[in-house]
Every structure is written in structure tokens, then in C-alpha cells.
């Protein structure tokens, strides 16, 4: 109850930091989707790019989040604004599940369906947008779902470089050795991750090919 009381007493700040957290997660997920889906399509149709693209995304995942923030700090323009740096780092971390699921979704389309499309005279772009992507959409959304949940958790680390978000409470609570303050950041972040997972999961089921 003390945690709930603390959140209610500081609800203005909690809401402001939640808004910052949503901004970081939403923008980074959007950028990761805009980059990851085309890369997934590329490696599905050009197998020669498969290993370098997936290897690059995998390497990024192995870099500890604080270390990645530190590596990006000296980059011109990015290092001047903590939120820009955090959005780039979160975008990089969110790429792997989106690329991998887009690749799996496109490759999982029944070859007989694509052959039928070609037989009907569809061009490569028509085949992609009218056949492959609609059939792969639920698998792609599964990757976006994973990316969102990852981003919600990692965005708490962004507070370490002054990018804001609910991590502000977590780091403040650690410095004060106060569990109430830590939970004031951790609980809303966990709720956000659960709601995002449920929301994208619902959309994924709605778009499941029948």
C-alpha cells in the first residue's frame, strides 16, 4: 500500500515520466519497424544478405545496454540530446526480432501460393504486397510484439544518461535505497509491457490468415 500511496501522491510526476517512457518506446519501435521489415524482406528474397544482416543484429543484442549508450555518446548530434541517443539505441535493440520474424513470415508462405500468383501475371512487387506480406503479417507482428516488450524494459536504462522515462524513479530509488521509489518506476513499466503485449497480441490474432 505504501507504494500505491507514493504513486498517488506523486501522480503528476509518474504520469510525466510514463509519457516520456511511451515516447521513447513508441518512436524507437516505429523506426525499428520501418528499418527491420524491409531488411527482413531483403534477406528473404536475397539469401546472400542473410548472414551479415542477422549477424549484425545479433551482435547488437549481445552489447550490454549501458555500454551501447556509452559507445554512442561521442557521436556528433546524437550525444547532444540524450533522448535521441536513447531512441537510436532502443531502435538497434528492437531490430533483431522484427527482421527475424519478417524473414520467417515471408519464407513461410506456401510456395504453391506464390507460384499461383506468378501464374496470374503478378509482378514481384504485386506478389510481395498482395500475397506475401498479408500472409506473413501475423508473424511479423509477433516480432513487433517482442520488440515492444524488449524496448519497454530497456527504456528504463535510458534514465542513466538523462533521457527520462520511468527509469528515473528506479535509479533514484536505488540511490536512496528506497523500494517504494524503485517500484514506482518498475510497476508502471511492467504494466506498460503487459498492456503492449496484450494489445499487439490481440492485433496479431485478428490478422491471422484464415
Give an overview of the whole structure:
The chain has about 210 residues and is mainly alpha-helical. Helices cover about 80% and strands about 0% of the residues. It contains 9 helices and no strands. Helix 7 (about 125-155) runs antiparallel to helix 9 and helix 8 packs antiparallel against helix 9. The chain starts with a helix and ends with a helix. About 35% of the residues are buried.
Could you give the topology of this structure?
Blueprint lengths: L1 H8 L1 H35 L4 H13 L2 H8 L9 H26 L3 H9 L4 H31 L12 H10 L2 H28 L4
Quick structural overview:
The chain has 210 residues and is an all-alpha fold.
Characteristic key phrases:
210 residues; mainly alpha; elongated
Q: How many strands in all?
A: 0
Q: What's the SSE pattern?
A: HHHHHHHHH
**C-alpha geometry:** elongated
Distance between the termini: 46 Å
Largest beta-sheet characterization: none
Mean pLDDT across residues? 88
Q: Radius of gyration, rounded?
A: 20 Å
Query: Which consecutive residue ranges, at least 5 long each, have pLDDT under 50?
Result: none
Query: Helical stretch count?
Result: 9
Q: Which structural category do the helix and sheet elements fall into?
A: mainly alpha
Helix share, percent: over 70%
Q: In percent terms, what proportion of residues is strand?
A: under 5%
Amino acid at each position: 500500500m505504501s507504494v500505491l500511496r507514493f504513486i498517488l501522491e506523486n501522480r503528476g510526476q509518474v504520469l510525466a515520466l510514463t509519457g516520456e517512457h511511451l515516447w521513447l518506446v513508441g518512436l524507437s519501435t516505429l523506426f525499428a519497424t520501418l528499418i527491420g521489415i524491409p531488411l527482413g524482406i531483403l534477406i528473404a528474397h536475397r539469401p546472400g544478405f542473410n548472414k551479415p544482416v542477422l549477424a549484425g543484429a545479433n551482435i547488437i543484442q549481445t552489447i550490454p545496454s549501458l555500454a551501447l549508450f556509452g559507445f554512442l555518446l561521442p557521436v556528433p548530434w546524437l550525444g547532444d540530446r540524450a533522448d535521441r541517443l536513447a531512441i537510436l539505441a532502443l531502435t538497434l535493440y528492437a531490430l533483431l526480432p522484427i527482421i527475424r520474424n519478417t524473414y520467417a513470415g515471408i519464407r513461410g508462405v506456401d510456395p504453391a501460393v506464390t507460384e499461383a500468383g506468378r501464374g496470374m501475371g503478378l509482378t514481384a512487387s504485386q506478389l510481395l504486397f498482395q500475397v506475401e506480406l498479408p500472409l506473413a503479417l501475423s508473424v511479423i507482428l509477433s516480432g513487433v510484439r517482442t520488440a515492444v516488450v524488449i524496448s519497454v524494459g530497456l527504456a528504463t536504462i535510458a534514465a542513466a544518461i538523462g533521457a527520462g522515462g520511468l527509469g528515473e524513479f528506479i535509479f533514484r530509488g536505488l540511490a536512496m535505497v528506497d523500494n517504494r521509489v524503485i517500484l514506482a518506476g518498475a510497476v508502471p513499466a511492467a504494466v506498460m509491457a503487459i498492456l503492449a503485449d496484450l494489445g499487439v497480441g490481440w492485433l496479431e490474432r485478428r490478422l491471422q490468415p484464415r
